[in-house]
Each structure stands twice: as C-alpha cells, then as structure tokens.
Amino acid sequence: MDTQADTIPLAQADERISRYDWPLLATDLDSHGCAMLQNLLTADDCDRIAGLYDTPQHFRSHVVMARHGFGKGEYRYFSYPLPSLLDDLRTALYPRLAPVANAWNERMGITARYPGSHETFLKLCHDAGQVKPTPLLLRYIAGDFNCLHQDLYGDLAFPLQVAILLSRPGEDFSGGEFVLTEQRPRMQSRVEVVPFSQGDAVIFAVHNRPVKGTKGNYRVNLRHGVSRIRSGQRHTVGIIFHDAK
C-alpha cells in the first residue's frame, strides 16, 4: 500500500520501542492498569497518520458512533495491509506486552497463554475465524465523546492495547481527556485520567486485570473512553493486537 505513512523511516519502529524502560512500564501496568510511552511518534508521524483519515481506500469500515450508541464522533478501521509504521509498531510492541499478559492470566487463574511473536498470535486469531484488522483511526470534533467501553472482537482477545494521540492538546483541541475506570468488587469505581501530549502513547488493559488483595489476587473490570471535546478536532490511532470476526 502506497500511503503517506509509508514515507516514515519504518525500520526505526523496534528501535523506538526498545528505548523505553519495560520493567518499569510493567510495574506501572501492574499498579495502575496503564503506562505511558512519551514521544513514541514525532509530530510529522502524527500529521501523516491523521492525514490518512480522508482517504477511504486505506480502511475497511467507517463507524459513526451516534448510530450505535457509542457516543459522538467517528472512526475508521484500517484494512490490510496496514500502513507500515502501524504494522511495525504493532509487531514491535506485542512481544514486550505478551509477558505481562501471561503473568496477568496466571494470577487470575486463566489458562490461556499468548505466544512470543505477534505473527504467531495473529495466526491463532485467523485460525479461529478472526481475520479482520482492528487498528483504527478516530476523529472527534467539538461536542463529541466516546462512552466507556471495551474493545473485544471475538473469543481471542489480547488483554492490552495502545492508543496514540495524534493532535496537540490546547492547540488543535480542548477537552477530550482519555479516561480509564476500574470496577472493583464491593468498592466504588476508580478513575484514571491520562495526561497526553501529541505523539504520546498509553498502554492500557482492555478488559480485566489482576489486583493483589489481602486474600490473594482478584479481577477488576476496566473500561475506557474520551470526555467531551470542548473545541477543535482530535485524532487518535488505536493499536489493538487481536483481529476481529
């Protein structure tokens, strides 16, 4: 696929990912259910990816959120082959996150384990009939928002995903905070607001994560969303590691 995003030096994806302190990020994920990758993309990267939104040939579907009760705003799912930067980031991020996912499943008493490479995991998805790519590009304008939700598309779902802010808070838009909530058994829900800058990424739990209590580990249920855009326009790209039916 010949896209604007393919003009980025794509061989740098793994180098970019490897510069982060992954043991510290794993600790953040265990403690908070999310972790930040600051400056994952450059401003030029962000502008090129956001610029793909109005070229429908790069996407397999277009969702207007209000039609489905998801909130207000819209997004497009990329088609295969993905723009190379997103494909390479997806491939490079996965093996750093699979050990966290496997440790979480062990603590929660879930038997499923995730293979070490994304290629192998995608083959499992495809063998299960989940063949549609899930990375997506979202666009919000003033008044738009995204209701709290979970991105689960089939029986095989990787428990972590990544969102990258492509727009500049305070310049391109105002409002539009990324919000995570945790529902703990017999407790009030906990809210986390992620402080994004352009090019920053957040890794976060898709569905459940383990929390250590006085009697061992228990599961908490997570949802994520975006608060109301007060002004301007906001683009985000989401990297989901499992494919959909």
Descriptive overview:
Helix 2 (22-32) packs across helix 4. The mean pLDDT is 91. This protein is an alpha+beta fold and 245 residues long. The chain has a single domain (4-240), classed as Jelly Rolls (Sandwich), CATH 2.60.120. The protein has helices spanning 13-18, 22-32, 43-50, 84-108, 118-127, and strands at 34-37, 59-64, 71-72, 74-78, 136-141, 145-149, 160-165, 173-175, 178-183, 190-194, 201-205, 208-213, 216-226, 229-240.
CA(first)-CA(last) distance: 23 Å
User: Helix and strand string, N-terminal first?
Assistant: HHEHEEEHHEEEEEEEEEE
* Rg (CA only): 17 Å
- In the CATH hierarchy, what is the superfamily? q2cbj1_9rhob like domain
Query: Helicity range of the residues?
Result: 10-25%
CATH architecture classification: Sandwich
Biggest sheet statistics: 8 strands, antiparallel
Task: Give the uncertain stretches in residue-range form.
Answer: none
Beta-strand content estimate: 25-35%
Number of strands: 14
Structural class: alpha+beta
Could you name the CATH topology?
Answer: Jelly Rolls
